[in-house]
Specification:
By secondary structure, the protein is an alpha+beta fold. The protein contains four helices and five strands; from the N terminus they run H-H-H-H-E-E-E-E-E.
């Protein structure tokens, strides 16, 4: 879809062969303007950080629902995940996701000052 948006000005180039310059130039300017108006939100959306999937989970904070010794359950953004920790983390402790492998999270204890 994005490629079609950027291809619109190229499709409008035959206007210069079919119409006089004083008509083709304003029409081409409108096509360029509309392309820019449509492309700007597309480009800004593509530059935003990913919020879903594995990349979206990294760094998120949650709470240990069960004791992590080393396996247990955590809640992160309202979802319950199975998790592993390198250290004993009691239930109720705040954790941070450091890695995700399929549907399993690796977490670390969050310092109290981190929130």
């Amino acid at each position: 879809m994005c490629h079609l948006i950027f291809f619109a000005p190229v499709l409008a180039l035959p206007l210069f062969w079919l119409l006089p310059w004083n008509i083709a130039v304003p029409i081409y300017g409108v096509v360029l303007g509309l392309t820019a108006l449509v492309a700007w939100p597309v480009v800004t959306a593509m530059r935003r950080p990913q919020l879903t999937g594995r990349e979206g989970m990294l760094g998120m904070r949650g709470e240990a629902l069960t004791e992590l010794n080393p396996h247990g359950l955590i809640r992160c953004h309202g979802e319950v995940w199975s998790a592993t920790a390198d250290e004993l983390i009691p239930a109720g402790e705040r954790v941070r996701v450091v890695a995700v492998d399929r549907l399993h999270a690796r977490v670390a204890r969050t310092a109290r000052a981190d929130g």
